[in-house]
Amino acid sequence: MSTFLLEVGTEELPADFIASAIGQWRSLIGQSLADELLTPESIEVYATPRRLSVLIDGLPQQQPDREEEVKGPPAKAAFKDGKPTKAAEGFAKKQGVKVEDFEIRPTEKGDFVFIRKQIPGRLVSELLSAWVPQWISGLEGRRFMRWGDGQIRFPRPIRWLVALFDEQLLPIVLENGSTEIVGDRLSYGHRVLHPQPVSLEQASDYLQAMESIFIQVDPQKREETIKTQVQACAEKLGGYARISPDLLAEVTNLVEYPTAVAGKFDDQFLQLPTEVTTMEMESHQRYFPVFKSPESAELLPYFITVSNGDPAKSDPIAQGNERVIRARLADGQFFYQADLAKPLERYVDQLEAVTFQEKLGSVRDKVERIRTCVRVLAEQLQLTESERELCDRTALLCKADLVTQMVYEFPELQGVMGEKYARTSGEPEAVATGIVEHYLPKGAGDSLPQTMVGQVVGMGDRLDTLISIFSLGMIPSGSSDPFALRRAANAIISITWEGYLPLDLHQLLVDSVASCWPNSDLPNLVPTLEEFFLQRIRTQLQEDKSIDYDLVNAVLGEDDPEYASRGLADLLDLLKRALFLQEIRTSGQLDAIYATVNRSTRLAVKGSLDKEQLDPVGVVKPDLFEQASEQAFYDAMVKIVPQTQRCQETRNYQDLVNALGEIAPTVSRFFDGEDSVLVMAEDAKIQTNRLNLLGILRNHARVLADFGAIVN
After folding, report:
1. pLDDT > 70? residue 172
2. Residue 191: phi, psi to the nearest 5?
3. How many whole angstroms separate alpha carbon 394 and alpha carbon 711?
């Protein structure tokens, strides 16, 4: 078995492209091999800022021979009077077989001609030579470029190419206008530590050769090296390095031979908010901050950077980094002191100069709409007067830090600086916390606001965004969602569920639209928003809460707007019913009631009984019963009415399931026992009476879910 190496050498690639390219090549290359029946022992994709490479072990020299079946023309078109027609002869010639090799076989569309032909395997080196240009051009990403006068597009210019099949150099040429990139044995090492090229004699030498020229080509090993070195440096400084996964991933793809280098900054900068200092280090300089311990929030006056240079030059590298961070932190200190010159409230009116959306006015206008939505929320949640005042004050100040110098410099600190400035301005602690929390969650998996003020203002902010953008008809479609409306709706749902907030989302939308946009098309805007929320609820139940799709359908209804309306009116009850259904499916309790309830539900559709009717008295007439099973069914339904009504009040759905389980044998007897009945009787009155009886059972089950939507 043989080894294949492909290395594409480039100028320094963007860090985000490297991670993407590794995944793309794994998929693309694996598919190419599988399509040609090649199953290597391993496919390893490597990358550094100056190269993408793949090493494939366990390839044969030649592709295996294979047999292929080909369907030809219909038999009646291929033969006439027992002799082959021109169609048959043409098919045989095209496939390189004889007419005598034909097989006639029946199909759904009649008899057809089939042949089996042997296809000899190709040399794997030939396949690889054809694939390499496809693999290179098949990579996708943002900001691809052309260079020279050619048409090749890649994130950075390609400078060299190595393609070896064991010792064999494959004849690969990439034409780029007037220049050619010709496959060679030469690879290039570290720019500083080994600027000379190295000749690769065979593909299996690759990893060892890379080590010899100071290239750590495996990203996973490079990442582990960085983590180990950074923490070792921090321990020598008496601290602990905070290693952000995103920063670690980026730094890993910025270096070929990592060396951790420690630096120091002036103690005076520790007076800055920790978020400012760490943002300067992580976002702008790609340094790792050092804290007193893993649990501590106390920052030490040190940082650790990862150099791609000569380890022997670590001291001057550290000094250069210290000069840079000193200047950056001095700027941050200036911005911070300048922002503190006036209280946070004084920044609110400056929001007039910041446009939220061309047709929706300024951020100052948005703040007033947020305050309106917050008042609607406060009314529905029945907050106390003091809670309402705190929520309103937070809503007024929640965007004020957007016009501070610090947030202008570091947009990622919005809310964080608002919290700091609110405290220094003497605002209540609840207001300061609410300002930073109202941005939560910032994405999937992020933490949620924990205080009532943060929850209410956060939902008010998102409500305004959703209503305002929807009022312009700018509804997200496909992957386009420039105002992150899906995320906004998800946040409102998550905050409601996790905060256990008794919200009527339908009424909240109606009241908020009427208050913020009184001239909007209310009859159409609210249903459109509700449909959008229902889509997000469905997604969250399935993906975040792991509820089976049919159980989600059962609580939201299939073609039954009453379920959707009920869910929107009480999101907490909706979640509770969905989780409960999943629980009783897992425990097996659902199976015990499913058959009879589902059968009753599907038949009850043929009747016209009101879906709210729970008591059979008055709507089911015992004098029309013909079998004892009907009376038993009726008596059982009368008996469980109080239990179901109590369940509606307490939301203890286990009591309802227990009651349905108890009557299941009685219902089964009605359908299939010795004294069973034919529901669709010829006598219209008897038929209606029996359908009403089934409708009563359906209505009791509807208190929990639409059993007709459940698949068992």
Report:
1. yes
2. -55, -35
3. 47
Distance CA(460)–CA(515), nearest Å, equals: 12
Classify residue 120 by its DSSP letter. Answer: P
Cβ 111 vs Cβ 102: under 8 Å? no
Identity of the residue numbered 282? E
Q: Which residue has the tokens 């044969």?
A: 60
343 token code pair: 């209280």
| Cα–Cα nearest to 497, from 536, 551, 554 | 536
What does the pLDDT read at residue 521?
67
Cβ–Cβ under 8 Å, residues 448 and 495: yes
In degrees and rounded to multiples of 5, residue 183 shows phi and psi of -60, 135
CB atoms within 10 A of CB 171: 10
Tokens linked to 505: 């989302």
Taking the CA atoms of residue 424, residue 429, residue 435 and residue 439 in that order, the dihedral angle to the nearest 10 degrees is 130
**Nearest CA-CA partner of 2 in 166, 130, 126:** 166
**Close Cβ partners of 323 (under 8 Å, ≥ 6 residues apart):** none
- What pTM did the predictor assign? 0.80
Residue 522 has pLDDT above 70, yes or no: no
- Which segment of 70-79, 485-494, 665-674 scores lowest on mean pLDDT? 70-79
* CA distances, 463 to each of 181, 249, 392 (Å): 56, 35, 15
How confident is the model over 446-499, as pLDDT tens digits? 899 999 999 999 999 999 999 999 999 898 887 788 899 999 999 999 999 999
CA 378, chain centre distance (Å): 32
Query: Cα–Cα distance between 645 and 639 in angstroms, integer?
Result: 11
Using CA atoms, how far residue 28 sits from 35, 40, 220, 412, in Å, is 11, 14, 20, 36
Is 1 within 8 Å of 57 (Cβ atoms)?
Answer: yes
Predicted pLDDT of residue 66: 80
Cβ neighbour number for residue 75 with a 10 Å cutoff: 18
> Tokens 């008809």 appear where?
473
User: pLDDT tens digit string along 196-211?
Assistant: 999 999 999 999 999 9
First to last CA, the chain: 50
